[in-house]
Amino acid sequence: MARDLTLPGAGEAKTREPSPNPLAGLPSVDRLLGERALIALAEVHGRLPVKRCVQAVLALARERIGNGGVAPGESELVAQVALAIARDQSPRLRPVFNLTGTVIHTNLGRALLAPEAIDAVGQAMRDYAALEYDLARGGRGDRDVIVEELLRELTGCEAATIVNNNAAAVLLTLKALAAKREVVISRGELIEIGGAFRLPDIMKAAGCKLVEVGTTNRTHSRDYENAITDRTALVVKAHASNYAVTGFTASVDEAEIAAIAHARGVPFVVDLGSGALIDLVRFGLPAEPMPRDTLAAGADVVTFSGDKLLFGPQAGIILGRRELIAKITKDPLKRALRVSKLTLAALEATLRVIASDHRLPERLPVLGLLMRSRDDIRAACERVRPAMTRWAGEDFEVRIADCASQIGSGSQPVERLASAALVISPRGKAKGRLAEKLEAPLRTLPIPVIGRIHDGALWLDLRCLSEADEARFLANLHAEPTSC
Ligand SMILES: *Cc1c(COP(=O)(O)O)cnc(C)c1O
In angstroms, rounded to a whole number, what is the distance separating the alpha carbons of residues 26 and 30? Predict the structure, then answer.
């Protein structure tokens, strides 16, 4: 009783005394870390990440108890820590199923690489490599030489240099060849490509003065002739990547622009965007401009992406006349934009596959996906539909419908590939609950499934689900969702 008289606030304490503090039921951090299961996890992941998860799980438990919940038992806490650590240690760069119908999807990582390229990257990571070492002479070398010979063979160029992506290729080319001077380009080609690639902004960043010629829909050769002065450093043509100008249009072809520019002693640069090194028509696909033809038409420098229709790693390829490429590689910006040995390893291996011209649709996964027939994709839909119907539940109907895939990444925006999709639409009472009931749950599967909402239904174009991946896809549907 003496205690009651001496402790401040003892009267209040006394009234609460009958119910023990529920927080006291929680184990300490150290006690949990001593649990056999968590010792085993610490062996695999390290003590520090496990400790962080223990702290997070205990903090959450305290919060729940504060809100009137009951204290979880020790084995439940251990299970929660195990889940938390699994989530914490899984990569943020997650693999996904791309069922959007866009094959070369910029937000989903563009090209899938050839097995040869994947092996080459592994080797380049494991071992020292002759990256900038001339093995013949025994001294410092040049990393661009690794792919230059192959690019010469594939495009007929004199020289080549590689940077991080095509945006960097355009920026570097403009800066090295035309800083503080004028660049002539057709108004119809002042393009913006998803994200922040806007040609006028790149020109500004490169320190060039943009001279627009012609109108949005029509540009004639006299427009170029009138615009070229002694302040002109370059004439540029950009491939209209993600849109098409149709109707009453006119543009000047590459050979004619080259002739006009060369008559005034001005180099002609073409940004091809996709730049296929394989004639896609041979494989039944829409024609795509090829660097070889553009150079043959008279372009002095051509730029394009490594991870669009070249089917390789992210990179920007700059090809052309030797003295212009030399000027470009001497620019200090080249040092800032150069690629790593991993990119070069993947690019070299991809170019070698292309140069072999041997079993290309099997060896270049993206080419294989682009070539899949509607019948083949429909058959995949038939195989997957029963599981999808069970997964979606009785509130939804799953049917098979024809659709059109896109090549993507600005390649031939108007050309579509005949494909087929599983179309999941809500019945009566589930109307309007697509995003909540289907789209989001698919996105939170261990391997997230990305589709496309169109016309009140979820469309899963199965072009990019290869037959070899179907079993993995089905197992994934039955797995527990994870939070992202
Ligand atoms: C895609 C594209 C670019 C940008 O290339 P990245 O490799 O994405 O940097 C630039 N110009 C054109 C015409 C393109 O199609």
Answer: 12
